[in-house]
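ok so I'm stuck.
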Amino acid sequence: MAAGPKEVSGTALVLPGGGARGAYEVGALTVLLPALEQRGERVTLLCGA
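replied:
not stuck anymore, here's the structure
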């Protein structure tokens, strides 16, 4: 019998765009990532376009 999918927990971050939107995202990350670290959380999956 094949094993089913594993349950995985974590925090994913999706960054949808470049250009001016990318500049906004970088600014938001400078606040978001330290706030997550203070809570003991880390981004475990990062994807973008």
